[in-house]
Design brief:
Layout (H helix, E strand, L loop, with lengths): L1 E5 L20 E2 L2 E2 L2 H9 L4 E6 L4 H8 L8 E6 L8 H5 L1 H4 L4 E5 L2 E5 L2 H16 L8 E7 L7 E5 L5 E6 L8 E2 L3 E4 L2 H8 L10 H10 L3 E5 L4 E5 L3 H18 L6 H7 L5 H10 L4 H11 L1
Parallel strand pairs: 1-4, 1-6, 4-5, 8-13
Antiparallel strand pairs: 2-3, 6-12, 7-14, 8-11, 8-12, 9-10
Helix pairs in contact: 10-11
Protein name: Glucose-1-phosphate thymidylyltransferase
GO molecular function: glucose-1-phosphate thymidylyltransferase activity; metal ion binding
Function: Catalyzes the formation of dTDP-glucose, from dTTP and glucose 1-phosphate, as well as its pyrophosphorolysis.
């Protein structure tokens, strides 16, 4: 499975913070925002990743992450000329995806919680299981997160088996209180489906339209991110502050870092002790360096 991080857009909800820099470069407490969605793909054991951003901002991500070699992964980059919708990511990334399945995560979404790694790994495994069968039931997996104000989000209604019953985009009367966060798993037909779309009233290729096509085929499932799970959309000043405060509280109370890319790579065996030491030696005196040094002692 390939992974795509959509880190484009102009970040207008965060102006003037984003007037001269990508919002996905902004700090969420002690790390650039893009570390968090990248960590989610890594936790899902996805090692081939495409970052899509603007012509202005792609060089920033290249300078920050390079080709991913230091993390034991492969990172490529593509430009989205203008914010034409989330679903355009599959058209931009068509060559990158090839014949594989693909996971898409929005660059301003943060996920954290006990059991998250298993949920992500199981989602990838779901596609691997059906890869070997003639039934071709792979389809799509989206997530449901309980919220108090579902009318502010895309909303999913599902049955007891997780099969999606209906999808609504910011409805006045929501059929459920489960919002759809910015993380999606699709089979390879998502490319063909994306080519079928026409721009919405917002002049964008909508991700909801992709999900509706899978719903027509009855090939879309929901996984619940319930109690113990946290999801942030950091695309607003309030969301950015709330996420930063949350990360600070967890890390200082528990001593574990959230979205430490080097730790994930080291723990999974993608990089060895020699590479970790090399990374540490390049860092100046900071808390992040001290945390990486603590990994060598465990």
């Amino acid at each position: 499975m390939k992974g795509i991080i959509l880190a484009g857009g102009s970040g207008t909800r965060l102006f003037p913070l984003t007037k001269s820099i990508s919002k996905q470069i902004l700090p969420v407490y002690d790390k650039p925002m893009i570390y968090y969605p990248l960590s989610v793909l890594m936790l899902a054991n996805i090692k081939d990743i495409l970052i899509i951003s603007t012509l202005r901002d792609v060089p920033l991500f290249e300078r920050l992450l390079g080709n991913g070699e230091q993390l034991g992964i492969n990172i490529k980059y593509k430009v989205q000329d203008s914010p034409n919708g989330i679903a355009e990511a599959f058209l931009i990334g068509e060559e990158f995806i090839g014949n594989d399945n693909v996971a898409l995560i929005l660059g301003d979404n943060i996920f954290y919680g006990n059991g998250l790694s298993k949920i992500l790994e199981d989602s990838v495994t779901y596609f691997q299981i059906y890869e070997k069968q003639v039934t071709n039931k792979k389809g799509a997996i989206i997530f449901g997160y309980p919220v108090k104000n579902p009318s502010d989000y895309g909303v999913v209604q599902f049955d007891k088996d997780g099969n999606v019953v209906s999808l609504q985009e910011k409805p006045e009367k929501a059929k459920s209180n489960f919002a759809i966060p910015g993380l999606y798993f699709y089979d390879n037909t998502v490319i063909k489906k994306s080519k079928m779309l026409k721009p919405s009233e917002r002049k964008e290729l909508e991700i909801t339209s992709i999900n509706e096509l899978y719903l027509l085929e009855k090939k879309i499932k929901t996984k619940i991110l319930g109690r113990g799970m946290t999801w942030f959309d950091t695309g607003t000043p309030k969301g950015l502050l709330e996420a930063s405060n949350f990360v600070e509280a967890i890390q200082n109370r528990q001593g574990f870092y959230i979205a430490c890319l080097e730790e994930i790579a080291y723990t999974k065996g993608w990089i060895g002790k020699e590479m970790l030491v090399k990374i540490i030696n390049k860092l100046k005196n900071c808390d992040y360096k001290k945390y990486l040094e603590s990994l060598l002692k465990k």
